[in-house]
Amino acid sequence: MPNRAEDVRLIRLLREANVLVNVDGHKLHAPNGVIPVVCPDCDQVDDIDNHIRKLLDESGGRIRPHMLKQHGGGMLISEACPLDREFNIDRYLLKHIGIARNLKDINTIILYVHAPCGAAQLEGLNVVEILYHVVEAKKRVKAMWPTDRISCYIHVDYANEKKRTYFLSREAFERWFHDNNGEQYVKHMNKGNGSSPDHKTEFEPAAPASS
Ligand SMILES: [Zn+2]
């Protein structure tokens, strides 16, 4: 299942617009490790896992990825993302990010998506919609834990042995989306601004881990 031609075209456009940029691990602030939310795709997970470890190594932080894996990855936390909606997977993942933060004292969260993603293709999502949802997910996580660092990445398999991971700039994406009528690509828009009215305490354990 390769990338659709339209997605390859969109990825090229987003690269040219500096929405998807080369990764610089030195910019990541992750002194105590990261909580990556990733898709478990068995053909990509080794590459994604190695990339996260390399990123941590470059950042100078501890190589300590506390992975949360669900089909679709980081975009699932967007309220409007259609994947596994019936199971409240967004709330499930927020709960488990909260648990991981408290148990492991990690305050850097990585929201990872990839293309081609079979789970996204089953729902008919193009790459712009995937990025839209991961940006919405970032806003939602940031609203819950405002002092945490939250970074978004997309892994692309170009089907010719070439795999690349790009950093997704939220600001650049939102500017591009606004200037290029991004709504035309997104079938499932969030109604509000992406931040949910969730009560913080709902996802936080009552007390920090004692050991
Ligand atoms: Zn996937």
What does this structure look like?
The chain has 211 residues and is α/β, with parallel strands linked by helices. It is built from six helices and six strands; from the N terminus they run αββαβαβααββα. A six-stranded mixed β-sheet has the order 1-6-5-4-2-3. Helix 2 links the parallel strand 2 and strand 3. The model is unreliable at 194-202 and 205-211 (pLDDT under 50). Zinc ion is lined by residues 39, 41, 71, 114, 117-119. The site of zinc ion has 7 residues, from helix 4.
Please give a handful of descriptors for the protein shown.
binds zinc ion; disordered C terminus; 211 residues; 36% helix; alpha/beta
The global form is: globular
User: Class, according to the CATH hierarchy?
Assistant: Alpha Beta
CATH architecture: 3-Layer(aba) Sandwich
Secondary-structure-based class equals: alpha/beta
Q: Can you count the beta strands?
A: 6
> For the CA atoms, what is the radius of gyration?
16 Å
Helix-residue proportion: 25-40%
Distance between the terminal alpha carbons, to the nearest Å? 45 Å
